[in-house]
UniProtKB/TrEMBL annotation:
Residues 5-79 form the ArnR1-like winged helix-turn-helix domain. Gene3D superfamilies: Winged helix-like DNA-binding domain superfamily/Winged helix DNA-binding domain. Pfam families: HTH_45 (PF14947). Transmembrane segments: none annotated. InterPro entries: ArnR1-like_HTH, WH-like_DNA-bd_sf, WH_DNA-bd_sf. It comes from the Archaea. This is ArnR1-like winged helix-turn-helix domain-containing protein.
Length: 108
């Protein structure tokens, strides 16, 4: 099994999803599977750009952050659909190749 590294947008999606419910820094770090240094980098970026706010020890989404979360969820859904279609196409083309091989062997 190959492991795929997450890109920035997937990491932002993970963090924003946790912050949507109000997340403590440690909770975000563990649930988003990030090191402490990376967590701080992403949280600072999100806070400086107005996507999250810190209230007490909780990180919560702003309206702008909720809109970004909604867009990232849509993007992820489209990515999964494209991946599924690519898989189906590859299965169809491999089956078509197998059928051609069967037909050729019948002729010979």
């Amino acid at each position: 099994m190959t492991t795929k590294r997450r890109g920035k947008l997937e990491i932002y999606l993970d963090i924003l999803s946790i912050c949507a419910m109000g997340g403590k820094k440690t909770e975000i770090m563990y649930r988003a599977n990030l090191s402490y240094d990376l967590l701080n980098k992403y949280l600072n970026d999100l806070e400086q750009n107005g996507f999250i706010v810190t209230t007490g020890n909780l990180r919560c989404l702003t309206d702008k952050g909720q809109r970004l979360l909604d867009l990232l969820v849509k993007r992820e859904n489209v990515r999964k659909e494209v991946e599924d279609l690519e898989f189906r196409i590859s299965m169809m083309t491999s089956r078509a190749g197998s059928l051609k091989e069967i037909e050729i062997s019948k002729i010979n």
